[in-house]
Design a protein that fits this description.
The protein contains nine helices and five strands, in the order E-H-E-H-H-H-H-E-H-E-H-H-E-H. It has 219 residues and is of the alpha/beta class. The mean pLDDT is 91.
Length: 219
């Protein structure tokens, strides 16, 4: 079962979903894909051209031209990349161009994928879906600490404002807005450190898999 398993991990920025998804993949022996990097790399390609990420035609071209090596760039994090990614992710042609990339990755051998619409759009039939969240204040604090650790000067109040802006843009976009799938397992990591969050997520995934294994196959 595990070899073909797809686990969808969704949630807002800085909720800890990427760390959780990566560790779940390692624990379950599955490939891992941070789908947000696809949108970050697309947004960065647009910025490289000196273009506006709101330009749908240019953004769609950038998404269609994306290559695996684009995901290894060192400039896919930070405020500019964050907002560019969120902007291009609201463009239908960009999402269409990247949809099959994500589905093929998951279909190949099973996978853990994290993003914002994995459980609602990319793999709506995934047997296990997690929606990872935390309070806006805690997510802003985590993002600020992450930037500090990378030597990036940042004002915590500004980081909080950017988190709120990103949340609003992701939740209100007309295409694949950020929201939990109806059957998603909700995990609030506000009061959890990384180890506790991982332990709880792994417990939730294993409980769901055990529950599904216990359901008799249809005759």
């Amino acid at each position: 079962m595990i070899g073909a398993l797809v686990i969808a991990v969704d949630g807002p920025a800085a909720a800890g979903k990427g760390t959780l998804a990566r560790r779940l993949a390692a624990a379950l022996g599955l490939p891992y894909l941070d789908t947000g990097l696809l949108y970050r790399a697309t947004g960065r390609r647009v910025l490289d051209r000196g273009a506006d990420p709101h330009d749908a035609a240019i953004a769609a071209e950038a998404a269609a031209a994306l290559r695996p090596e684009d995901l290894d760039r060192g400039d896919l994090r930070g405020p500019a990349a964050d907002m560019a990614a969120s902007t291009v992710a609201a463009i239908p042609a960009v999402r269409a161009a990247l949809l099959e990339w994500q589905r093929e990755f998951g279909r190949r051998h099973g996978a853990v994928l994290d993003g914002r619409d994995i459980g609602t759009v990319v793999f709506p039939a995934a047997p296990v879906k997690l929606f990872v969240t935390a309070s806006p204040e805690e997510r802003a604090r985590r993002r600020w600490l992450e930037l500090q650790a990378r030597g990036v000067a940042a004002d915590q109040a500004q980081v909080a404002a950017e988190i709120r802006d990103r949340d609003a843009q992701d939740a209100n976009r007309p295409v694949a807005p950020l929201k939990p799938a109806e059957d998603a397992l909700l995990l609030d990591t506000t009061a959890l450190d990384a180890e506790a969050a991982f332990a709880r997520a792994l417990e939730m995934v294993r409980d769901r898999l055990n529950f599904l294994d216990a359901i008799p196959a249809e005759a």
